[in-house]
Amino acid sequence: QVQLVESGGGWVQPGGSLRLSCVASGSIFSGSAMGWYRQAPGKQRELVAGISSGGSTNYADSVKGRFTISRDNAKKTVYLQMNSLKPEDTAVYYCKMSWRSIYNYWGQGTQVTVSS
Fold first, then answer.
1. Is there a contact between 27 and 11 (Cβ–Cβ < 8 Å)?
2. Phi, psi of 89 (to 5 degrees)
3. 3-class DSSP state for residue 61?
4. Closest-CA residue to 113 (of 80, 87, 94)
5. How many helices (H) and strands (E) does the chain have?
6. Tens-digit pLDDT profile for residues 5-18
7. CA 1 → CA 23, 65, 101, distances in Å?
8. Which of 41, 75, 91, 113 has the smallest number of Cβ neighbours within 10 A?
C-alpha cells in the first residue's frame, strides 16, 4: 500500500514563505519520481515542480527562482520550499509519486492561500 501524507499548507501574505512536506509510505519511494502539482479554482491542474529518483529537478516557469523541490530518501519525504509567494500561487497543492512511469499515487492535497 502506498499513501502520501501532506502538510505545511496554510495562509501567508504576499512575499512570505511556506514549506510543504509529503511523507510517503511503502517501499518504492527511492525508486520513484516525485512531483508537486497545483490546481487553482477554474484552472487545470499543473505541474509545479518535479524531482526524479536520481535528484534531477524541473520547474514550471511561473515558479522558477522562487520554489525549490527536494527529497530525503531516508525519510521518504519530498519537500516544496515556496518563497516570495504571490496571490496567483493560491491553489490546492498535490503531491504525486510515479513508479516506473506506470503507477501514480496522489496525496490528498493541501490548501495554500496567499493574500493580504
1. no
2. -80, -10
3. coil
4. 87
5. 0, 11
6. 999 999 999 999 99
7. 14, 35, 17
8. 41
User: Which residues, in sequence order, are bridge partners of residue 13?
Assistant: none
Cell numbers for 8: 505545511
Residue 26 is classified by DSSP as S
Q: 78 forms bridges with which residues in the sheet?
A: 22, 71
At residue 89, the 3 state secondary structure works out as helix
Instruction: Please report, as a single letter, which amino acid is at residue 102.
Output: I
| 1 band by pLDDT with thresholds 50, 70 and 90 | confident
Cα torsion through 80, 48, 14, 64, rounded to 10: 90
Nearest alpha carbon to residue 9 among 34, 38, 33: 38
Model pLDDT, residue 64? 98
Instruction: Enter the C-alpha cell of residue 21.
Output: 512536506
